[in-house]
Design a protein that fits this description.
By secondary structure, the chain is mainly alpha-helical. The protein is about 50% helix and about 5% strand.
């Protein structure tokens, strides 16, 4: 049976490394969701009769995919599919929290402040230059991360919907049952941050069925 996706170590550095974040999501979806048909076929071990030469004399239709027994489907969903979905959800939830947190160590912070200062000193005369009043400040990395998370959550919903359609076809079940009805992501409650004497250290407590997690240096590089 295919192994579920392994959740990476969750740190702000992981989230701000956009390529690493995307690679984890892409590889997880590729091995589990994009390959869902192959993964389900692996649960079936059909007997292979010997080759019959007479079979070439007439055209036969390709047999429909075999129905998978209920227990095998349940095991696959509970041990592979849902844990992989959960791992991705926890990554997206964590990085969404990072995107909404203070980020005093943003490497572009000084450059943005300098650009804003320059913009305040500019002389705007739209009669001479209609574009002189336009100012596009450099985007903070938390804003870029928030935008990425929104995109990936949208993709995640589409991927899960397609995967669940295949699972329903091969495993049976209520055709009107969506993946949301069967699998609910582990509830994650992000409490308000509490600040130590040093404002760089921010404690976030994650309430899940797992042991509460404390994260320090949430805004460090």
């Amino acid at each position: 049976m295919t192994q579920p996706s392994t959740q990476p170590q969750l740190t702000p550095q992981f989230c701000f490394s956009y390529g690493t974040l995307r690679d984890f999501l892409r590889l997880s979806r590729s091995s589990i969701d994009d390959s869902i048909t192959q993964n389900l076929n692996a649960l079936v071990t059909p007997s292979r009769p010997g080759f019959d030469p007479a079979s070439t004399s007439q055209r036969t239709l390709r047999p429909a995919p075999r129905q998978i027994d209920t227990q095998s489907c349940t095991d696959f969903k509970d041990k592979v599919l849902f844990p992989s979905w959960q791992a991705r959800s926890e990554v997206l939830n964590y990085c969404a929290m990072v995107a909404a947190s203070p980020d005093p160590d943003d490497p572009d912070r000084t450059a943005r402040e300098f650009e804003k200062e320059q913009d305040r000193d500019r002389i705007v005369d739209e009669r001479l230059d209609p574009y002189s009043g336009r100012f596009f400040p450099r985007e903070a990395r938390t804003e870029r991360l928030a935008s990425l998370i929104r995109q990936e959550r949208s993709v995640e919903g589409i991927v899960r919907h397609r995967t669940w359609e295949v699972v329903q076809q091969r495993c049976g079940g209520d055709p009107f049952e969506s993946w949301e009805d069967t699998h609910t992501d582990m509830p994650v409650c992000w409490q308000q941050p509490t600040y130590d004497e040093d404002p760089v250290y921010v404690r976030y407590y994650v309430t899940t069925t797992q042991t509460p997690l404390m994260l320090k240096n949430i805004s460090s590089n």
